[in-house]
UniProtKB/TrEMBL annotation:
<keyword id="KW-0813">Transport</keyword>
<keyword id="KW-0812">Transmembrane</keyword>
<feature type="transmembrane region" description="Helical">
    <location>
        <begin position="135"/>
        <end position="154"/>
    </location>
</feature>
<feature type="transmembrane region" description="Helical">
    <location>
        <begin position="401"/>
        <end position="434"/>
    </location>
</feature>
<dbReference type="InterPro" id="IPR051679">
    <property type="entry name" value="DASS-Related_Transporters"/>
</dbReference>
<dbReference type="InterPro" id="IPR031312">
    <property type="entry name" value="Na/sul_symport_CS"/>
</dbReference>
<feature type="transmembrane region" description="Helical">
    <location>
        <begin position="51"/>
        <end position="70"/>
    </location>
</feature>
<dbReference type="InterPro" id="IPR006037">
    <property type="entry name" value="RCK_C"/>
</dbReference>
<feature type="transmembrane region" description="Helical">
    <location>
        <begin position="6"/>
        <end position="21"/>
    </location>
</feature>
<dbReference type="InterPro" id="IPR036721">
    <property type="entry name" value="RCK_C_sf"/>
</dbReference>
<feature type="transmembrane region" description="Helical">
    <location>
        <begin position="446"/>
        <end position="465"/>
    </location>
</feature>
<feature type="transmembrane region" description="Helical">
    <location>
        <begin position="28"/>
        <end position="45"/>
    </location>
</feature>
<feature type="transmembrane region" description="Helical">
    <location>
        <begin position="174"/>
        <end position="196"/>
    </location>
</feature>
<protein>
    <submittedName>
        <fullName>SLC13 family permease</fullName>
    </submittedName>
</protein>
<feature type="transmembrane region" description="Helical">
    <location>
        <begin position="570"/>
        <end position="590"/>
    </location>
</feature>
<dbReference type="InterPro" id="IPR004680">
    <property type="entry name" value="Cit_transptr-like_dom"/>
</dbReference>
<feature type="domain" description="RCK C-terminal">
    <location>
        <begin position="298"/>
        <end position="382"/>
    </location>
</feature>
Length: 591
């Protein structure tokens, strides 16, 4: 081992620890690690920045635009709602949910699919008095399985495809991964239908649990004629920055004011609804003219009227909310919504709401104002998982159908070799802009630049691993230890390591770290490089053991009321199934 290799291993270990501990945003951590390696001279600037022009990364960017059109059209939501409406039995409903979702995920970004369908599933389960936890985790798993079938099923496939091209290989064909993806999808779905559903928990949603203990979340204070600040604003009345309390709504006769701004006026007779550390509400009684109403019957379902409504939102990995407290981020002003409660790992985060620093996966219970949905469309800070009271689709569904036809036509061109996947997506996005199905501003909003920065930076780190000899050193170490046990042992070890990295950090980072090692090993043990690439891509995508390894798992974590143990219990057999099938197919086809 050289000094360079030791430094690279220390740097990557530190990066992985930072990702696991959520020390900073994933894209910034990976980019900073790449910057350190660049400053140490391990790679040239051209090599470090090559990931920003990688075809796989650019294709992911274009696919974000296509996914944004489908999400806006509501086409997938309408189709899935119609499938579930005809379901008679629980198992039949799960089949009608999982098989179409896996098929959609083979061709579309699975993150918006799960984000869009989570409210649909919750609405369906609510009407039938079924726990959403029985369906949301299988929804995520089905989308992950389906994403392993095609080249565009997940960004990880495209990243590995780009790495293959950079290594001088031809890359994946459109259905190259289907030899593994189809068997593991079929086996995985039947496991979920026949056995996994029995292991799923029976949890209530956050809103249901909060409603059963409303007095722990909400308290009412009545404004009497003795209140000296009647006719003054909330800020002037010194009700803005209370210790451990947060004013979320004012009830004035039949009118409800929510969210409450600092300039909202307080009047005699107003009923002030607070959330936070309710045990400190008695401090308000020390103020003349404020009386705590202990006999009131508060319900979260009543904390909404007109343009205000109760909303659940899951904080995303790309969220800017994770870098500051709710108060520092000016949440109310930014989103036109007030935070009632924050749940993390299925437990309420105690303390003053405004002082809480959200983390990825946190479930926020919000009272939203009339501009809430418009403002959240402009940002990627969280996923809205609350079921709508009525069926609502965002745009003309004909645009969704036209986009689907265009996509299928271009995929056909890719399959017969007329176009590369990158050129096909360039034509696709160009057609969407020319036909005015999407606008330049909408296309820009759909692109998740933080994800692209993560992928491009991770690709640069992959180059570091190769150029410094770290990949060759790791490959020789693995081969010397495992080759006496046979090629199957090497394949199992590579799959296991990649899969564990995915659960601890992110799927794309795991793929980029492990691909150079797998590529070096392929030449040593006599297996085709494309086979090792398939194994790496599938292992990096098949994240079933924790909510932090994959975005779709994170989306359903809070709404399903899951714990880490739920993922491990249901996901471990699925992980073993996927590993056994993947290793077997790769061994048979590529050795």
């Amino acid at each position: 081992m050289t000094i360079e290799i030791a430094v690279v291993l220390i740097g990557i270990t530190a990066m992985m620890a930072g990702l696991f501990l959520e020390a900073a945003r994933p894209d910034l951590l990976v980019f900073f690690t790449l910057f350190v390696f660049l400053m140490l001279g391990f790679v040239t600037p051209d090599e470090a920045l090559a990931g920003f022009s990688n075809q796989g990364m650019m294709t992911v960017a274009l696919l974000f635009v296509v996914a944004g059109v489908f999400e806006k059209s509501g086409l997938i939501e309408r189709l899935m709602s119609s499938f579930l409406a005809d379901a008679v039995t629980d198992r039949g409903a799960m089949g009608k949910l999982l098989f179409p979702v896996s098929a959609f995920s083979a061709f579309f970004n699975n993150t918006p699919i799960v984000a869009t369908l989570t409210p649909v599933v919750r609405r369906w389960t609510s009407r039938r008095n079924i726990s959403p936890s029985k369906y949301l985790l299988p929804l995520s798993y089905a989308s992950i399985l389906g994403g392993t079938i095609t080249l565009i099923g997940t960004s990880t496939n495209l990243v590995v495809h780009g790495l293959l091209i950079d290594a001088g290989e031809t890359g994946f064909s459109f259905f190259q991964l289907a030899w593994v993806g189809v068997p593991i999808t079929i086996a995985g779905l039947f496991y979920l239908l026949l056995f996994g559903r029995r292991l799923l928990p029976d949890h209530r949603s956050m809103i249901q649990r909060v409603n059963e203990s409303t007095k722990d979340y909400l308290s009412e204070v009545k404004v009497t004629p003795e209140f000296a600040y009647s006719g003054k604003t909330v800020e002037e009345a010194q009700l803005r920055n209370l210790k451990n309390l947060y004013l979320v709504e004012i009830i004035r006769g039949k009118e409800r004011i929510s969210p409450v701004s600092s300039q909202t006026t307080i009047w005699t007779g107003d009923r002030l609804i607070f959330t936070g550390v309710i045990s400190t509400i008695a401090d308000l009684q020390k103020r003349k003219g404020l009386v705590v109403n202990t006999g009131t019957d508060l319900s979260l379902e009543n904390i909404k009227s007109g343009d205000s409504r109760l909303v659940e939102a899951v904080v995303s990995h790309q969220s800017s909310l994770t870098q500051q407290s709710i108060k520092q981020g000016r949440f109310r002003q930014t989103y036109d919504a007030a935070v009632v409660a924050v749940h993390r790992n299925d437990e309420r985060v105690e303390g003053k709401v405004g002082d809480i620093v959200p983390k990825a996966g946190d479930l926020l219970l919000l009272v939203s104002g009339p501009e809430f949905h418009e403002r959240t469309r402009e940002r990627k800070d969280f996923y809205i998982t609350t079921p709508l009271e009525e069926q609502k689709f965002y745009e003309d569904e004909s645009q969704g159908w036209l986009t689907l036809i265009l996509l299928m036509a271009l995929i056909g061109c890719v399959m017969i070799g007329w176009l590369s996947i990158f050129k096909a997506m360039v034509i696709m996005v160009g057609a969407l802009l020319v036909l005015k199905i999407t606008s330049p501003s909408e296309a820009k909003e759909a692109v998740q630049f933080q994800v692209l920065l993560l992928i491009a930076s991770a690709l640069g780190i992959g180059r570091v691993i190769t150029e410094t000899g770290t990949a060759e050193w790791a490959a020789e170490l693995l081969i010397s230890g495992l080759q006496p046990l046979g090629i199957l042992a090497v394949l199992v070890c590579l799959y296991f390591m990649t899969n564990i990295f995915t659960e601890l950090i992110t799927n794309n980072a795991a793929a980029v770290i492990m691909f150079p090692i797998a590529y070096e090993i392929s030449g040593e043990i006599g297996i085709e490089p494309i086979g090792m690439a398939v194994l790496t891509a599938v292992a990096a995508s098949a994240s079933f053991l924790s909510p932090i390894g994959y975005q779709t798992n994170l989306i359903v974590f809070g709404p399903g009321g899951y714990s880490f143990a739920d993922y491990a219990r249901v996901g471990f057999p699925l992980t073993m199934i996927c590993m056994a099938v993947t290793v077997s197919v790769v061994y048979i086809m590529y050795v």
